[in-house]
Design goal:
Blueprint (H helix, E strand, L loop, with lengths): L1 H16 L3 H20 L1 H19 L11 H49 L4 H16 L3 E8 L2 E8 L4 E11 L2 E11 L7 H66 L7 H32 L8 E3 L1 H11 L1 H4 L3 E6 L6 E3 L1 H18 L5 E9 L2 E7 L32 H11 L3 E6 L5 E8 L8
Parallel strand pairs: 6-8
Antiparallel strand pairs: 1-2, 1-4, 3-4, 5-7, 8-9, 9-11, 10-11
Helix pairs in contact: 1-2, 1-3, 2-3, 2-4, 3-4, 4-5, 4-6, 6-7, 7-11, 8-10, 10-11
Length: 462
């Protein structure tokens, strides 16, 4: 229609112009070719150029109203007009087509990168799909956009509403590598032109990108599930190993002591009976600590390690722990260093007692006979640092983070094996109080384990 309409309109206007009709007609015909090429594309431009050539010949070249040409120079002028009109229409159509395709590619790149950026941001898939639907609605000026997808029996629906009354619906499958996850449906505005080939290709490309994102989300979920199962299996295996190893030794000692006491054929004096009963008591305490650590680990894993915070003097808790552990600390030298102006901390006294106990048990386990353990309490900005150093073999730099993992044990020699829970619980307690815990090397050899806790606000200190 545009190829026929523009030459006809140019003819009517040129005939109305009257004077200098050939110059006006050629200009109007050339303008018509440009309009036809811009609106209808290359084919419309070429058809308009041919019809303009015929119109210029028939209506405005002597002899008028015939297709005969009286002069050779008029024939050359007509031929040049046809060539110029065809070139102009073709070049303009190609330029506009390239510009349109470039805009579509740019829009496609923006939409696909939008999906990837939103996924990399770690947002939930529901929010990513909804934002994508809203962006596509604004970009294509749609009445609405709908995304319907499912991954492993879980549905994801995203609807975005635009302006205008709904018109034609166009759908594309969310498919990649012969796997279909759902559909993408766009609803054009009422009266909007149907999608051309480039826009349809854009819709398919975008649908494929969403399918790739859904496939990636499915794979990520499977990986996380596999990792969780692996961690759970490792935890169960470590727990079984810990229980079988750490429970067997004290149980064997308790059984041996109880069996000896029940043996009527053995005659024990008071000192021997006291030693056997003391063995039972010590091994029972050891079992109790192990069970308490396992329960704390379970609470830590479930997020139930919530401290009942109150202003607490750290030095008082240290004195209480040292008094309770005096027998275990007897073979070692213990030195306490308390810096001046030590503030109280906002902490759970029971959990703080347990953390200090675990730190000292860890130091006792790795200290040589007659070695020294130094407990340092110092203020650091708005926190209090509690450090316990020993003269043991030390911890290599690459293992200083791993020692805080549950059930991780270092081979530090015979008789020094623990449950692998002590430092993990120390860090869990520190983090639950808003603090932290770390391991450093000691300048004199051995290890320094530091736990940092926030100081109590001045208004809450006793």
């Amino acid at each position: 229609m545009v190829a026929l309409g523009t030459p006809t309109l140019a003819t009517v206007l040129a005939l109305i112009a009257g004077s200098d009709w050939r110059v006006v007609a050629a200009s109007l015909y050339l303008l018509g070719v440009v309009v036809a090429a811009a609106i209808g594309g290359r084919t419309a431009g070429l058809v308009a150029a041919l019809l303009s050539f015929l119109g210029l010949n028939f209506f405005f070249t002597p002899p008028r109203y015939t297709f005969r040409v009286g002069k050779a120079e008029d024939l050359v002028a007509l031929a040049l007009f046809l060539i110029v009109a065809a070139i102009v229409g073709t070049l303009l159509a190609i330029a506009l087509r390239d510009r349109r395709q470039s805009a579509i590619r740019e829009r496609e790149t923006a939409l696909t990168s939008f999906v990837g950026t939103q996924l990399l941001a770690g947002l939930p898939l529901e929010i990513v799909l909804w934002r994508f639907a809203a962006t596509l609605t604004d970009s294509l000026q749609l009445a609405s956009c709908e995304v319907r997808a499912s991954i492993e029996d879980r549905r994801y629906d995203a609807d975005a509403q635009g302006d205008g009354h709904p018109g034609e619906r166009v759908s594309a499958a969310l498919a990649v590598r012969e796997r279909t996850f759902g559909s993408l449906t766009i609803v054009q505005r009422e009266g909007a032109a149907p999608l051309d080939d480039d826009e349809a290709r854009l819709l398919r490309a975008v649908a494929e990108q969403i399918a790739i994102a859904l496939e990636r989300a499915e794979l990520d979920r499977r990986i996380r599930t596999a990792q969780d199962e692996t961690e759970s299996m490792e935890l169960r295996a470590a727990l079984f190993s810990s229980v079988t190893h750490d429970l067997r030794t004290p149980l064997a000692s308790i059984k041996a002591a109880a069996t000896s006491l029940l043996d009527d054929e053995e005659a024990f004096d008071a000192i021997q009976r006291h030693d056997l009963l003391r063995t039972v008591l010590e091994e029972t305490d050891r079992l109790n600590r192990l069970v308490a650590n396992l329960m704390d680990l379970a609470r830590m894993r479930s997020g139930g390690l919530t401290p009942a915070k109150e202003p607490t003097g750290v030095e008082e808790v240290v004195d209480s722990v040292l008094h309770r552990m005096r027998d275990a600390l007897a073979p070692l030298r213990v030195r306490t260093v308390i810096r001046p102006d030590l503030p109280e901390v906002l902490a759970d006294p029971v959990q703080l007692d347990q953390a200090l106990t675990n730190l000292l048990e860890n130091a006792i386990r790795f200290s040589p006979p007659g070695g020294e353990i130094v407990i340092t309490l110092a203020r650091w900005h708005d926190a209090v640092q509690v450090s316990v150093s020993d003269q043991g073999p030390g911890i290599p730099l690459e293992d200083r983070e791993r020692v805080f993992e549950a059930f991780y044990r270092r081979d530090a020699g015979p008789g020094r094996a623990g449950s692998g829970l002590g430092l993990a619980i120390v860090r869990a307690i520190a983090v639950a109080h808003g603090g932290k815990a770390w391991v450093e090397g000691s300048p004199t050899g051995g290890t320094v384990v530091t736990m940092e806790l926030p100081a109590a606000p001045v208004s809450e200190r006793v």
